[in-house]
Automatic annotation (TrEMBL):
Pfam families: Inositol_P
UniProt GO molecular function: 3'(2'),5'-bisphosphate nucleotidase activity
Alphabetized SUPFAM superfamilies for the sequence: Carbohydrate phosphatase
EC number: 3.1.3.7
PANTHER family: 3'(2'),5'-BISPHOSPHATE NUCLEOTIDASE 1
Keywords: Hydrolase
Domain of life of the source: Bacteria
Stored CDD domains: CysQ
Entry-linked InterPro entries: CysQ/Inositol_MonoPase, Inositol_monophosphatase-like
This protein's name: 3'(2'),5'-bisphosphate nucleotidase CysQ
EC class of the enzyme, as a word: hydrolase
Source organism (scientific name): Sphingomonas agrestis
């Protein structure tokens, strides 16, 4: 089984487990815990020589000595999960030498798992562009950028759901400046890059994974035609 197939299968099975939990009690804490156990057990069996960085496990800094590190978020969008919404996700990614090489993002309520191995073909973009922002706490920078470029802000839940909405053609831009961690965007970035989208920090630099500090303060995933426009707008508003 290839790494991409493994990531896809694990994300899909973790998503199925989370759906059962959601039907029973919609407990985000239980979902995080049980999905994390499933993912770690599978990875430790299938790829015992690789390191793992998970949001729901203690960070073993031995990963810094490894070339291959699985970066996972067992339940991205705990609030949305507890509210029985559709916009939550499961992230399973493999970073190799700091790059997001393989990724799978499951959207269980939609019955979808998007993989870097076989991303969907990009649809024709819309104008004005739709820009995905946090549904509960959009940053001032994102609001300013949307106004500067004439984009239509669209609120949505988890990072994975927003990134995959761009991959699926439901929006053109996903801009985030409110702070994230490696597990929030490694799998989405891998899928987005495989689909032919732009993915970077908001200063245009590439995102580096498996660094000691897990924080990644900002992120841009968008159609390539909008990348320079958005990056310039971020500079213009001091982001």
């Amino acid at each position: 089984m290839t790494d991409a197939e493994l990531a896809r299968d694990i994300a899909t099975q973790a998503g199925a487990l989370l759906l059962r939990i959601q039907d029973e009690c919609a407990s985000g804490d239980r979902g995080d815990r049980e999905a994390n156990a499933l993912i770690l057990d599978w990875l430790e069996t299938a790829r015992p020589d690789d390191a793992i960085l998970s949001e729901e496990s203690a960070d073993d800094l031995a990963r810094l000595e490894r070339s291959r590190v699985w970066i996972v978020d067992p339940l991205d969008g705990t609030r949305e999960f507890a509210e029985r919404r559709d916009d939550w996700a499961v992230h399973v990614a493999l970073a190799v030498d700091g790059r997001a090489e393989v990724g799978a993002v499951a959207l269980p309520r939609l019955g979808l798992t998007l993989s870097s191995a076989a991303p969907p073909a990009l649809r024709d973009p819309q104008t004005p562009p739709r820009m995905l922002v946090s549904r509960t706490r959009p940053s001032a920078v994102c609001t300013d950028v949307a106004a500067r470029i004439g984009a239509v802000p669209v609120g949505m839940g988890s990072a994975g759901a927003k990134a995959m909405a761009v991959v699926r053609g439901e929006a053109e831009i996903y801009l985030h400046t409110g702070g994230q961690h490696q597990w929030d965007n490694c799998a989405p970035v891998a899928v987005a890059l495989a689909a032919g989208l732009h993915a970077s920090r908001v200063d245009g630099s590439p995102i580096v994974y498996n660094s000691r500090e897990t924080s990644i303060p900002d992120l841009l995933i968008c159609r390539k035609k909008w990348a320079e426009v958005v990056l310039d707008a971020v500079k213009g508003c001091g982001g």
